[in-house]
């Protein structure tokens, strides 16, 4: 962005009074903050940049790399114009050129780190799903048989214990843990807690003891879920960062499938002398094995360079980046850019309460609303009801226990396989379109599953087939849509200066409602019957479609300035426009009718008829 454009932005922002104050500190306004964080090096002359890079190297114990940091500072300002920089040698340009033409030609160390992060995601999935098979056995053995309504609440409480911990405490611990222990240390501690509590679960003999063990498991799930994607993002080069961060969702789905495999593997394990329920104890304990592998491997990976810089350990940060990049100029470029970005963040965030600004700044509030909707609906679409209780559901459909576990494995496999298309469709078809397309399908398929329970007992095979088909079709609709979109969308929706706080909030919403779903479903299944229970979540999917239609702007492939425009259109204006657009799109895309084009809603799409909505427009 040119200096003239920056001045124009400043003037526009000041005209709408978007400058915040406290008693002593004058804040940088939010739009300018976003622009500054998009690239703090914009507008700095090349001579000054080279001098700044050299000074940075000498000041932080990297004087022997002074020339590399001169080049690195120049390239960091605009990585696309390196061909025209006379300071760079042909060897430097060849390295930077190959970075663009061979995006996946990365050091082995980076891929080793990606494998570790993927394994961490798989542990997450296993932690969530191994309880599925165990639900067939432990309630009776621990004194909470499911023919009593109070016990159905207790089963839900036991199943939901980790997510209660995550929503209330675990996710909010990730920030102090990351501050004091680093990314690797936080992953190690959370994996250690997962390992210990998985073994602990297998040693319990009362429902309340199992509840305590699973509640403590939440301290392993919460910080890990918040840290691993950030660790992957901070260590990955920009060209492949999005794809690598998306691996979290895909490999979590893989872990859910492996959790069901463990339930099948240990189902027939007999009880030895003096041990009751060895099979379900081994199921719960199995998730500890990959957690142990993570513990032994995580410190073999480099630490996050961003965290090391925050600790003032610039030499270690350079060593870390040198292991994660092909050349010294790439390492110098990325280290210097992280440094100036952290300085800009410190300047912008001084004296502000970022959590309060999630709700008080209109642009942030709309992003918060949209993120809350997608995180809430990821739970209330009903997917985790199936992930945690599919064995119970299939048993009620008159599957045998083994058939129920095999059917649950099918759910896990489809959940993983159909997450793969999202890697391609999320950036082509778009986040909003994926959700608007899949939510009606999920609603229909859940209704289909619920109605299958009306099939009479004498047609048992037909009932089994339709129940399984309904759940499988639901999963195939969920996996490329509401599966990967919430985390991707939430990370984009918030402005840069408040993104970490926004993601902590969004993650806590996700885990809290995960707990609500887990604790209520056993009682819901009994009180509503399977038909009513599936109808309940089908209804929520219909509500989710309406919420997304009215309150969720598209964020695909938008610049920071365009995102500001999108989230600055007042909520009631956006909702009214989408209500008008719905019948228009149905006529155009469903019935293939010729219809008059609608005027665009956002400035970057063209004129908005009689009115334009500036990025700082008010409204609720």
UniProtKB/TrEMBL annotation:
Q: Which positions, given as ranges, span the membrane?
A: 153-173, 185-203, 209-232, 244-268, 280-301, 369-390, 402-422, 434-456, 462-481, 502-521, 533-552
Q: Which InterPro entries match?
A: MFS_dom, MFS_sugar_transport-like, MFS_trans_sf, Myo-inositol_Transporter, Sugar/inositol_transpt
* Molecular functions per Gene Ontology: transmembrane transporter activity
> Which reactions is this enzyme annotated as catalysing?
myo-inositol(out) + H(+)(out) = myo-inositol(in) + H(+)(in)
Tell me which residues make up the Major facilitator superfamily (MFS) profile domain.
113-556
GO biological process terms, semicolon-separated? myo-inositol transport; polyol transmembrane transport
Q: Respond yes or no to whether keyword Transmembrane helix is given for this record.
A: yes
How does the UniProt record describe the way this protein sits in the membrane?
Answer: Multi-pass membrane protein
**Keyword field:** Membrane, Sugar transport, Transmembrane, Transmembrane helix, Transport
Task: Show the GO cellular component annotation of the record.
Answer: membrane
Q: Has keyword Isomerase?
A: no
Localization annotation: Membrane
What single Pfam family name could you report for this chain, choosing any that match?
Answer: Sugar_tr
| UniProt family annotation | Belongs to the major facilitator superfamily. Sugar transporter (TC 2.A.1.1) family.
Q: What is this protein called?
A: MFS sugar transporter
Q: Which organism is this entry from?
A: Dichomitus squalens
